[in-house]
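Weekly puzzle thread! Below is a chain. First person to post its structure in token form gets bragging rights.
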Amino acid sequence: EYMGLIMTEDKNFSSDIFGDIGKESFEEEPKKDERQKGFLNQFSEDDLKRRHYDSHDELRKEKRVQRYNDKRKLDTADIEFTAESLISSDKIADMKFSIGDLPQYVALINSTELAQIFLGAVGIRKLLAKKEESPIQEIIDSNVIPRLIQLLDMSSIPSLQYEAAWCLTNIATGTSEQTQCLTQKGAIPKFIALLRSEHDNLKDQAVWALGNIAGENTDFRDMVLNCNIVAELIHVLSTTTRPNILKNGCWALSNLVRGKPEPEFKRVSDIIPLLCKLIKENEDGEILQDCTWTLSYIEDANGKKVQMLVQNDMLPRLVQLLENPSMGVAIPALRTLGCVITGEEEQTQLAINAGIIIPIGKLLGATKSSVRKEAGWALSNITAGSVSQIQCVINTNIMGKIIDLALNDSFDVRRECIWAVSNATSGGSDEQIKKLIELKAHTALSSILNSNEARTLAIALEGLDNILKKAKKFPDTAYFNELLASIEMCGGLGFLENLQVHPNAHIYNKAVKIIEDHFGCEEEVLDTAAVE
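Winning reply:
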């Protein structure tokens, strides 16, 4: 059972699940192919194949915030396992559980008598579990933390271990400074040891506490990783039959791989087979959401992640999840597939063979613009591939939708769809260029030439130039003239003329060259046609 949420702000761990990805959310890499060289290479190091700039810190708000966050707070528990069940109801009834009683609880927990220790632990736990703001700092200031950590070692009294673990778990929902009080006093290895307990409730508490600590920042995350949590947690999740441990463990795994800088691949790669197994075998929304996000967070190291996904036969399952009704599952599945489609042509083909194109096409119709943008980004990486891969997109009738969004959606979505169109013009065959012209690709590329964003202008100009160069070689000169007229009628020529005074030299030079190479000779082409 999920027992409450605490919202925390962390610069490393943004929680914007379906919000705007931002202007710099996609990272472009150097070009790998001769056909991709030219103007864009002069303009920047952008690549037609584009990886996400920050696949760890984006797309994490709304439903994810509703259910669980970087940190989680306990406000109920298995009463049968707590010390409360061992204390007479009269004594519990006499306790008011107010902050003014904290000194009394501290004195009790530091006692040598077991009954008093129980009372003190219950009192502190009740204070921390209050619905209103917990007195975490007051409890830290009482210097009781070392005693609570010490109680984690009392394996002969698991109910007391549980009380102490519960208190420390909720303290770990505080600020970075408050959580640091636990890490400095040696709580992490104690919780790691509890993962080996024979009691499931203690394992669950340990998983929850370690997830809270690792979710605070990358320094704490690395401290947890340094204590061999990966192997221990894999064992717990591979052997448990408790749904709550499985859910909490999957959430904790996500905190072990999130944040910048990412943990080294070799430190977390052993998680991948387990994640693949859990994703294949579960339909639970929470488990799928955490596992797919965790898989998407793990940085691909020289293609090793893709190799492991292929070895575990994960591409068909991930493609299937693209149609999951929860975008909290579909988007991280797409992000994970993103490391495949941004790879080499052969890897992209594996995703195409698994059926990725049609589900992505459906995402172009999503209600949320951020999802449509993500789908456009994915398709732009497919249209950056071979002629046959571009044809796969055309065959599914998705290109018309891409062009429509490039014309009519919000700028962020239009930008991604412009990339998809321009990439198709770069590697497309003559027949594919004709199809793009039929679908008004030139109109979409022209429509965004009034943008203030240099990168978008560059890719649109490149796409428009590609279309014009190839259409100019077609034997039907009237076809080319009609294309020029269409570009002029939709305002493209006017935008090109305006770009002749653009402050960016590359943009200026490209606009001038397009006008000189194509529109500058328009009258000459018409005159020649008239003579003939």
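Puzzle host: Confirmed. Bonus trivia for everyone else. The chain has a mean pLDDT of 83.
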